[in-house]
Amino acid sequence: MLAIPTPVTLRQPVATSEDYMLLPIEAGFTWAECFAPVDRGDWYLVVFRCKHRADADEALLTQLDADAIAAASETPGLHFYFAGTPRATGECLSFCLWDNQTSARAASAHAAHRKAMEIGVEHYEYYTLERYFIQKRPEGLVFVRLP
User: Fold this and answer.
1) Residue 43 to residue 14: CA distance in whole angstroms
2) How far apart are the C-alpha atoms of 146 and 44, rounded to whole Å?
3) What residues contact residue 117 under an 8 Å CB cut-off, 6+ apart?
4) Which of 28, 32, 43, 51 sits CB 3.0–4.6 Å from 90 for a disulfide?
5) Is 73 left (phi over 0), alpha (psi -120 to 50) or beta?
6) What's the pLDDT at 9?
7) Are 80 and 29 in contact (CB under 8 A)?
8) For residues 68 and 113, is the Cβ–Cβ distance under 8 A?
9) Can you spell out the DSSP letters for 60-123?
10) List of residues 6+ apart from 4 with CB closer than 8 A
């Protein structure tokens, strides 16, 4: 009889500081606790950093984000979608953690995600995307930033 492995539930990472959006992603959240339930594994992380313009339509951005989260939640392989709260000066960070890059790409093709990208960009002074492979090994957690 072949045993089918039971999926392990990761723990929700928590921000380590109210200024998490200004920190390197490895330092901004409780990643060790997040991955504590597993001995080893590989994941894909997409980090979105931006600065909201002073005249940004926050209600619209919140709705676009909620719609993108709902669409991502329908895509297999999503572990977490963290929707950041902008600082008073506008800086913000959101991220999504996936089983793999293929799942993340599938989610980015959803109409709600595309709409958020197309409309949202008008409300930012700047934005950047960071992509990482996260590896959990017995010796520790490693973040490998992708070009």
Assistant:
1) 18
2) 10
3) none
4) 51
5) alpha
6) 85
7) no
8) yes
9) HHHHHHHHHHHHHHTSTTEEEEE-----TT-EEEEEEEES-HHHHHHHHTSHHHHHHHHHHGGG
10) none
12, two tokens: 């929700």
Structure tokens at 47: 């980090």
- Mean pLDDT for each consecutive 10-residue tract of the chain (147 residues)? 57 96 98 95 97 97 95 93 95 97 96 95 96 95 97
C-alpha to C-alpha distance for 142 and 35, rounded to whole angstroms = 11
Tokens of 128: 């950047």
Q: Which of helix, strand or coil describes residue 34?
A: helix
Say if residues 52 and 125 touch (Cβ distance below 8 Å): yes
